[in-house]
Amino acid sequence: MSADATGHAAGDAPRERLPLGDAARAAAGRLLDAGHETYFAGGCVRDRLLGVEPKDYDIATAALPDEIRAVFPKARGVGEAFGVVLVRHGGHSFEVATFREDGPYHDGRRPSEVRYSNAREDALRRDFTANGLFEHPRTGEVVDFVEGRADIAARVLRAIGDPHERIREDRLRMLRAPRFAARLGFELDARTAEAIRAHADELASVSPERVGDELRRMLSHHARARAIALIESLGLDGAVFGVRAPARERRRLEALESRGAALPAGGWTTVLAAWWLDRLAAAGGGAVPAPTAPTCTEFVRSVRRRLVLSNHESDALASALACREALLGPFRSWPIAARARTIARAGFDAALALVAAEDPALGAALRAEADRELPARALPAPFIDGDALVKAGYRPGPAFKRWLDLAMDAQLEGRVRSAADALLLVAAAAETDGRSPADHR
Predict the structure, then answer these.
(1) Does the pTM of the predicted model rise above 0.70?
(2) Among 272, 190, 294, 168, which residue's Cα sits nearest to residue 234?
(3) DSSP state, 392?
(4) Which residue segments constitute the domains of the chain, with CATH numbers given?
(5) What percent of the chain shows pLDDT beyond 90?
(6) Distance CA 288, CA 281 (A)
């Protein structure tokens, strides 16, 4: 087996981890050296033209999958029906795709067949002109079959060819358009926007998993408020909430966006909560009519189904909304123990972010109080636990939880200061219940 210029056997990836761009150029160079027309493709080319360092590189080539494996014997197929092979090189993984053109689309997601083709046809099948560019990995020459460079210079997001046809091929492109436009700071081409509005209702036929994935990406980016404004202006919000927004309000969303690149507490589900609250405020003129407003529980149940939220995401969303209601309501009048338990909830800081977006002064005051009362956002280690009660002679049963909660409340309020004090408190509670340790032996 021959060795390449780095001293590694042909077909073997270098063992040292290279910088991402160097690894991508080295991988693409191996295909070029084997005689295959090869380019960087899509987002990495767009980002470089925008002066942004790419976070990943896709490689497009005239080499067929078997020819790619001849160069990279350890490559594995990840979408072989579409000519996509995963190559590991220089400590990084790259998707290497054979140039193709797509056959008819029958399900609004995937072509019924693909045909291996050439670079031009491969560019024409892509979604937006900004994503349809190629770049020679050695010379840096940009190959542009779709006038993408002009659109990038003009900061316009435009569908390649007929926007209606691009949408019919993959309806999720309607949601990708506002995500890319917001993230890149581009204006959405008028013909593309008009086509999206015409097909907006068809987004409901896209699998909720795919819609949810797009929303996660969109709401995790600092341009989230603009993305949401585009979604609503294009009529796509019905796929998220089941109904289009009759009015517009951005107060909470824009306040969260002012934080910059950092996500608010609780991550993207906090942004989702702010979006819903803005919609409610817009629909009700600031006060939502009770007969038409869904409860927080109904909203979480609905959006969980529509976006296929994980258990963790659903719990985070529900907890943030519940804590927010408490913070805007009776929280400040509660006993110290009840306040501490709320502060220790997983959704508390997310709720604080929502309250601060609605009322900055109140949010700041509540944060100061929480930082003073429970800065770690976690309850202290309890003086006693179930094992301590068993050792004291109590048999485990339904009363354990209530007794331990009483002991923790007293600990939080400073009424007990040791395990011995806590056991005395439990003994008094047990006696009130008409029980003693002997009754449990």
Answers:
(1) yes
(2) 190
(3) T
(4) 1-154 (3.30.460.10), 160-245 (1.10.110.30), 248-379 (no CATH), 386-440 (no CATH)
(5) 75
(6) 6
